[in-house]
Amino acid sequence: MCDMEIEEDSTRKVSIENEETGAGLIVSEDDEVGLETVEIEGALKGLALIAQGIPEDEEPINTKELGDSSLASDSDDFGCITLENEEAELNSFDRDEWKGQDKHIFILSESGKPVYSRHGNEDKLVTLFGLMQALVSVAQADGDMIRAIRIGKVLIVFLHKSPLILVAVSRLDEATPQIQIQLTYLYNQVVSILTSKQLHQIYEKRRNYDLRRLLAGSERLLTTLANSLEDDPSFLLAAVKCLPLANGVRETISQTIVQYTTKLKDVVFAILIAENQLVTLVRMRKCFMHPMDLHILLNLIHASESLKTGESWTPICLPRFDSSGFVHAHVSYLTDDCEACLILLTVDRDSFFVLSEAKQKIVERLRRQNCLDALNNAMKTNWPTMDSIGIPQIRHFIYKSRPIAQFTMPRLPLPYASETEGKNELRRLFCGYSKLQGRIHAHSRPLRLLYWTGDKENLMGWMTSTFELYVTFDPLTKKYVAIEGVEKLLKWVRKEEEKLFIIESSTF
Known about the structure:
The protein is globular and about 60 Å long. Strands 3-2-1-6-7-8-4-5 form an eight-stranded mixed β-sheet. The chain has a six-stranded mixed β-sheet with strand order 9-16-15-19-18-17. Strands 12-13-14-10-11-20 form a six-stranded mixed β-sheet. Residues 1-39 and 54-87 have low confidence and may be disordered. With 508 residues, the protein is an alpha+beta fold. The chain has helices spanning 35-51, 83-93, 126-141, 176-194, 196-205, 212-215, 219-231, 233-237, 247-261, 291-303, 319-322, 352-368, 371-381, 386-389, 422-440, 479-495, 497-500, and strands at 2-6, 14-18, 24-27, 103-109, 114-117, 146-151, 154-161, 164-170, 240-241, 267-274, 277-283, 312-316, 327-335, 338-346, 394-401, 406-408, 449-452, 458-463, 467-473, 506-507. The protein is 39% helix and 23% strand. A hairpin with a 5-residue loop joins strand 17 (449-452) and strand 18 (458-463).
């Protein structure tokens, strides 16, 4: 692995340091350098265009100096990059969709072919994709791998998962491992559409294949996921939020699903979701649902409004369950007056009508047991709130139960829920949580307890073998007062545990 850091001094030196050997190479503009060094500097300058917001007086990159070795492709529509094309692409950077963006995400093939860009049109960013591919290939030629580049306050993170390269450019003060996890989610989203087997077969046959042909219509899944990665703590914690529900009601729902699916052939999972929260998960014995796969399913529901109009039948790959093949999902909302979504997953592609009949029986029994009313009430009340918990020194918290990979948090209070400043305040809050999580889970020197003081709030992070806890306090809160509040909070969580979490999942 290597970290690369640009020092913005008078000589504009590029420092490359190898973590394993500790050896460093400093290249100055005055030195005679070979083609590989020119490629690195050109690629870094191209990426710096994003980092600097593409100033109008920025000189275009002289791609002719880079030669054909890394940027050229044997595809007719990619070919060698000309200065005229590059200037047109630089003009495309200077649009409203690029200005002011805090985070860019790019996906490309190993040959530099564009696959996805969170902002802008991939066809107008061909030079930039080529530069990113060149940078990765130069490091590979030396038997190394680029992990991250920092340019001022901007962090550029690479994730190379053959046959794709994923790149994130972030100004959000996130840690490199956290962004790499986000890129892994985006890679898994691509795999969920194609399967890893098909993805590799495509590029083995045609190295310069345009993957967008197969992903057409699925861009919204990637964009919705990319947006959620910034403000949904589920991805940061690798956990799922459960809908708070009385244990008796949850158990009735689970047993109803078991009753009507246990005799169905090849059903592996049955999942009930309400407002992007897990109500229950019923699984076949010896089959387990990884949080990352569950997030892929939640993203599918969240991004697809068309699923609300009727029963849907769609193949989907769950990368952590089986990345080489599809399962088939019967997706439907329970009723018009209860917007909880039932997902029945099977390996039998011909089970649609059987599962549709089972779904109707499940809904009928849930209505007789008054479970639909209980679900509607749970979605409307938005419990818990900090007022209902009754710990005034705590503004907000996130509690994760580590053994079951589930978390809970209260409804956001002011100022984080403000209609005017809520978005900025919320982003600052989650950036604070992200810093705590990154420091606690740091590979070099992890911490168990961390208390951070700021101008607008104080934050505390605490990790044990059974839980992770992130808490927000008023900025004037003393440490001993914060500790007292945390002790009260832990007692409250233990008291409400059965309502907040699914302690044991049902099986069939």
